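Most newcomers find our protein records easier to grasp once they have seen one. To make this concrete, we reproduce a full record directly below:

…
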Amino acid sequence: MATTTAGPAADLTPEQRQSVRLTLRSPRHLKTEVLAGLVVALALIPEAIAFSIIAGVDPRLGLFASFTMAVTTAVLGGRPAMVSAATGAVALVIAPLVASHGLDHFIAAVILAGVFQVVLALIGAARLMRFIPRSVMVGFVNALAILIFSSQIPELIGVPWAVYPLTALGLAIVFLFPRLTGVVPAPLVAIVVITAIVVPMGMDVPSVGDKGELPESLPSLFFPDVPLDLETFRIIAPFALTMALVGLLESLMTAKLVDDITDTRSNKTRESWAQGVANIVTGFFGGMGGCAMIGQTMINVRASGARTRISTFLAGVFLLLLVVALGEVVAVIPMAALVAIMIFVSWATFDWHSVRPSTLSRMPVPETLVMLSTVAVTVWTHNLALGVIVGVLVAMVAFARRVAHFVTVDRALERRDDGRETAVYTVHGELFFASSNDLYTMFDYAGDPQRVVIDFSDSHLWDASTVAALDSVTDKYAHYGKDVEIVGLNQASRRMRVRLGGMLNTEH
């Protein structure tokens, strides 16, 4: 890291802008981080309460989880400025366990999920991120934007008429205020202005306090009262593993998105085990667990301009101070202000370039199909992990179909030195389960001369399906009493054929 003192934003590279040390030396940058943390904390409160209700637990569990997750990942995580807290994805996964076995089993599952995440990080699960195509990432982002927007719709239905002009005012502030100045984050201005209008006038509109009771004390250590035996493990392990996988996938996808926005790279393996440690810590403080939050992360990074761990750490600290020490003040903040902020976040998150007619007309149809399938499944199920998995599967199928058509076989008749006529087949392309299925049909078994040579110098055998297809070809020629010579196999292909050849097509 360079030792340059922090100056104007334009004087620092994106990597330098993530430096805690340089930020602490720059009052302007530090102010940005502090205010961003405050805005995120205010936005986290109603979200954490809502997710607690989804999970079927006391709102304090969601609020305490948001504090411990944010603080722990700020210190240990691999992605600066990313916000982790209690999330809807985790709430949906864990809710059935709360209903069937109660709070103690629920907390035990959160701790076990953290252990699973640490183990997954150590065995390199984060490296699987490179197999997620760009079209899936675009679908993930767009689906997330739609979900953020749709989650605000209930806040605008069946409410007093005053909510609508207040929300419109909030939208005007968050969209237009940055054009005037970037000294103060626009979301914070929207919260202050709308609260300053509502409270003195005594307007009867929904507020943060209507979402649930705020805690009045600090979180304390909690040890779940469950038997430490295999039966308990059998009950909680499926929920814990699902939570671990969903949480990791959502966190790593969010980290990749922030990487793109900030033009920086992050350590995904470090982020993976940090998420696990955060969930373990959260469980032992009686929290509901969580993962990265895309909405609050976008508020922090895109709307507020934060770039360091300071904003994430302060988001957790401010949240705890606000709900414990200033709960009465926080409770009067109108939900209209937070709804306006989240609508802005959904607009800023959506990749509008991806749906322009000019983009769609140039994009290959399979790529568009992958993006749309990711969006459709995610929005339909409200499960970001499931949407990404389906998108990757569709991309794999599309890729396999595309590559399967790249395999060609050329045939030529030659007369060798011994005077015998020989059919020489040259195979071009990568042979695997999709492309090798048609290999059997590309030879003239009956019409070929007595001697046949198949040249794989321009090809590669990738799997057992290809070896089986090649065995079928040689067996068919043997049925006609013709000699087949396989040439040109590279070392890896030859080893695979020696190991598996003649074993896959045996009739029992």
User: Anything to note?
Assistant: Residues 1-10 have pLDDT under 50 and may be disordered. The chain is about 60% helix and 10% strand. The radius of gyration is 29 Å. The longest strand covers residues 421-431.
